[in-house]
Amino acid sequence: MTERQTFITADGLEKLRQELKHLKTIKRREIAQRIQEAKELGDLSENAEYVEAKNEQAFVEGRIAELEAVVKNAVIIQQERNAEQVRVGSKVKAKPENGPAVTYAIVGSNEADPKNGRISNESPLGQAFLGRRVGDSVMIEAPAGKRSFQIVGIA
Fold it and tell me: What is the DSSP string of the chain?
């Protein structure tokens, strides 16, 4: 399996590293203790605490593997001042056909938070903006129908 690059800000990468450290050092130990305590209760076939702890252990180990892959393949987004084209890391000010201009930060998928204006480079809108310049118009297919935006600024 080929692992793909993950675009992320330096702050976002640090947050993921902190989560990974917490899961490996604290959460693993807590779960191991819960499993041990559940084993001491006896019959494992009818032991809900044991089953729950094992399920949580599987989830945590999966998250650890996911975070390790992201950290290993992370590409730090460099914000470029006075950029002429939209790139990952750019802040795009765009005016929809009907409404006031909105600013979006183009980020990697791990940091996307559309409600707060942080859109993934892999989202339809993020993909439409990439490589565009001030004055360009983009059209995207949204669940509510087609939407058109004009890029009015790049930072």
Answer: -PPPPEEE-HHHHHHHHHHHHHIIIIIHHHHHHHHHHHHHTS-GGG-HHHHHHHHHHHHHHHHHHHHHHHHHTEEEPPP-TT-SS--TT-EEEEEESSS--EEEEEE-GGG-BGGGTEEETTSHHHHHHTT--TT-EEEEEETTEEEEEEEEEE-
